[in-house]
Amino acid sequence: MSTAAGTLNNGAVIARTRSVSYWGLVWQRMRADKLTMICLGFVVLFILVGIFAPWIAPTGYNAMNPVEARQGPSLRHLSGTDELGRDIFSRLIYSLRNAILVAFTASISSIVVGSLVGALAGYQGGIVDTLLVGAIDIMYAFPSFLFSVVMVTVIGRGIPAIIIAIAVTSWVGIARLMRGQVLSVKNRDFVLAAQALGASRWRILLRYIIPNSLGPLIVSVAFLVPGAMLAEGALSILGLGIAPPMPSWGNLINTGSTNMRAFPYQLYIPAGSFALVLLAFTYLGDGLNRAMNPRD
């Protein structure tokens, strides 16, 4: 009886193990990584703060009070005030909101365009593949940030222009990655079976090939977001980003750098918070990559 019971228990354990999906295993590996879970908590917190910025910020991002200008950090103003008496902590919260809006919108746009172009090139092959790969290589040859600067200069400043400029320069890497994934997937049995059943090319591409090629792209998104934030900040530092009085990390850091000697908190607090957000997203991407591609 004990042997039979042991066999049944082992069978139940094996059955439960087999019932765990791929994404379930990924989540289990992420939960076992404390640093990844801490970064995930920070990322969720940052997103929530960005979404609810108008309700969380103590004041409006452009609310001026010249009487309290250039005051250091205190209980009333956690990050101090700038030369116009605006609360820097409130401006940081709105900067986070703008950065998340730009980064996620540009990253999603890059994923959509890059996935479709790369999937079409890898699946169609022939002249279509040659033309699309040629276009990808041409775009890849341009320095991405310089191209973004040129685009913002031509289109004009503002959040839509920044999103377009970052998305146009970010889809290329996604397209190359997706093309390689599609080349490895398109000859698998389930794709050949769909072809034998008469499914159209677009149905096969959208229903079978792209969904089974998204694993590496999900990891790429985790790195695209901080990259887009960094690009938005760099454009703002150059004076080509979000136009004042709307705050962004770039123009906060740029303003703080000019007042660094007299009012160092105006630089260190925005730069430190910007670095914290970038690190949280980057380490989350590393943890997701380890969970999806374990080496042991």
Whole-number average pLDDT?
84
Separation of the first and last Cα atoms = 37 Å
**Protein structure class:** mainly alpha
State the CATH superfamily name: MetI-like
The main β sheet shows up as:
none
CATH class: Mainly Alpha
SSE succession: HHHHHHHHHHHHH
The total of beta strands comes to 0
Give the number of helices.
13
Shape: elongated
Short description:
This protein has 296 residues and is mainly alpha-helical. The chain has helices spanning 2-19, 22-32, 34-51, 53-56, 88-124, 126-141, 144-155, 159-185, 189-196, 201-209, 215-237, 249-258, 265-292.
Textual characterization of the structure:
The structure is a single chain. By secondary structure, this protein is an all-alpha fold. The chain has one domain (21-60, 78-292): MetI-like (MetI-like fold, Orthogonal Bundle), CATH 1.10.3720. Helices cover 75% and strands 0% of the residues. The chain has helices spanning 2-19, 22-32, 34-51, 53-56, 88-124, 126-141, 144-155, 159-185, 189-196, 201-209, 215-237, 249-258, 265-292. Helix 12 (249-258) packs antiparallel against helix 13 (265-292).
Features:
296 residues, mainly alpha, MetI-like fold, 75% helix
Describe the protein's topology.
Elements: H1 2-19, H2 22-32, H3 34-51, H4 53-56, H5 88-124, H6 126-141, H7 144-155, H8 159-185, H9 189-196, H10 201-209, H11 215-237, H12 249-258, H13 265-292
Helix pairs in contact: 2-13, 3-5, 3-13, 5-6, 5-8, 5-11, 6-8, 7-8, 8-11, 9-10, 11-12, 11-13, 12-13
